[in-house]
Structures are given as structure tokens and as C-alpha cells.
Amino acid sequence: MTSWDKAGGFGLGGWTLAASLTAAVLLAWVVFFGSKVRSEPRRCGDALLPMETRCCAPGQGISAGRCVGVPSRCKAPFVLVEGPTVGCALVPRRVLIEGGSVTLGPTDWDSADLVTKQSVSVHSFYIDESEVNVNEYERCVRGGLCKSIPSGKEPGLPATGVTFEAASDYCAFRSGRLPTPAEWVFAASGPEARRFPWGAHGLVCRRAVFGLVTGPCAEGGILPDLAGSRAPGRSPEGVLDLSGNVAEWSLSEEGKPSVHGGSFRSKHASDLKVWSQRKPVAGDDVGFRCVYPVDG
Fold it and tell me: Which residues are paired to 257 by β-bridges?
């Protein structure tokens, strides 16, 4: 036994035990903190607050998957919308996409069997910054030019359950049209052939609204989030929500519809990459945005 032991110290065995206990405490803290971060992703940004499966405005609560109540304020870039249903909504804005070409193809193991190499070329066009929301779509309904959608929806949510014909009617109301598949893909990928709208990597809950039904971002979700709620997922050109939230209609020059981009129901990265497509059927997780000529 050492002299420190005789004096009542830990001794060599005691020091080993103390070091082990310290390491165990640190490991437990790291595990706890890591699980806390994973289970509570900072997905709502600075303008909205996380509430179960949704991101809601300050002053609101959540009920049955919906943000309810009158917001105490709507932080930029959202504004307060008063109407049949009060809520926060993004102000429509158009983003210029400079014309160009891009070649897309399999870039990793999960895309090898799902996408074939293809090249697309487009002229310059403007595109909606985010998906058309309920508030904007209902302007067209009130004008008698668009088919109605179920009432009582939050004004800032994407307009969903709309056929590509009805979406085309709205775009015509705004002096635009649905994007072609080439335009949609080019807006999402850019000339760099990005895997995701923001870049090659980094699919996380703060960049895209996905995995809200059975994870990884939430459990039990039944709705998307407000259009434009994921600012970190903005493309370099300035376009939001091209991955997740709701999938989006496109329409070829020959009149063939397609659906792109994944939705809040998507779980896998392959469903959210810029080249992803699915069966062209309207649903509660399918919305749209419009494109416009540069000389319009």
C-alpha cells in the first residue's frame, strides 16, 4: 500500500475507480445530450416554435396536429392573415432562375437503381419562392377561377388536394403556368447537379419538412408545415421547399403531369433528392408552385 493510502487517500486502485466514475458520468452526459438533440431537432427556425409534429406561430397551440388560435405575432418573413382562419403565411415572391444545362445521374448507392443519366436545358424563368399557400389559392377561388378546397385550413399551409388541372388554372390566374419537369429539376439541382436543393449533403430536419409521420423528424404527423418554414433548406438561388413539405406538380410541354420532391411523409433520402418522382396523383401531400416568363 502506498503512503497516500496509509494517510487515508485513494491509492492507485482508488484513482482508477475515480477516473472510471468520472468517465462514466461524462459518457452518460454525452449520450443524454446526444439523444436530446436527436429527439428534439431544432427544425422550426427563429420564426416558429416546435409543438409536437408542427411548427406553430408564437401564441398558438396545437390540437389534432393543427396549429390553432390567433398568433400573438408573425415573425418575418411571415405576415398575419385575417380571414375565415387566422394565421401566419409567407408573402408570395418570385425568384429568377438563370437558364442553363445540367446532367443528372446516379451519384450514390441509393440512387443507382432509381435514376438514369439525363441532361436538361432550360431558358431563364421566374419561379415561386415556395409552394402556393392556402391564402393565395383562395384568392383565385374567390375570383371564381379556381376550384375550392376544404375550408378551415391554416392560411400559410401549402394548398393541397389540387389536381394538376386546378393547379394550372391557378397559375394562369397569376399569369404563369406549372413548371415543366426540366424547369423543376433545374431549379432544384442548379447547374452544379446538387443532390438536394441546398447542396450535396445535409438532409436534416431543419432544412426540409420530412419524416413527420413515423420519424425521423417527428411521430404521428398528419399535415405539412407552413410553406417557407425551412430557411436553411433554401437553394443558392433562393428557392424554398423544393425537398419535402409537399410534393409538387409539373407539366410537360406535351401535357404529361409529374410529381416531384417528396413530402412530409417521406422517410428516405432517395425520396427527397432533386430527381425523385412519384405517381402523378393528387393528394393531401401534393401541392404546387408556378413559373413565369422573364419578360412578363
Answer: 251
The mean per-residue pLDDT over the stretch 117-146 comes to 94
Q: Is the pLDDT of residue 121 over 50?
A: yes
Question: Which residue's C-alpha cell is 436553411?
Answer: 232
**Which residues contact residue 68 at a Cβ distance below 8 angstroms, ignoring those fewer than 6 apart?**
60, 61, 62
Q: Is 169 exposed, middle or buried (0-12, 13-18, 19+ CB in 10 A)?
A: middle
Helices (H), the chain: 3-6, 11-39, 134-142, 164-173, 181-189
Comparing CA positions, the residue from 126, 125, 88, 96 lying closest to residue 228 is 88
Distant-in-sequence, close-in-space partners of 185: CB < 8 Å, separation ≥ 6: 102, 104, 120, 260, 274, 275
Instruction: State how far the Cα of 182 lies from the Cα of 255, in Å rounded to an integer.
Output: 13
Alpha-helical segments (H) within 104-161: 134-142
- And the C-alpha cell for 270? 432517395
- Asked if 52 and 218 count as a contact pair (C-beta separation under 8 A), the reply is yes
Listed residue (279, 273, 202) closest to 243, CA to CA = 273
Per-residue pLDDT tens over the stretch 156-209: 999 999 999 999 999 999 999 999 999 999 999 999 999 999 999 999 999 999
Q: What is the mean pLDDT of residues 245-271?
A: 96
Burial 152-161 (b: 16+ CB within 10 A, else e): ebbbbbbbbe
Q: Alpha-carbon distance 45 to 230, whole Å?
A: 7
Count, residues in the chain: 296
| Predicted pLDDT at 114 | 57
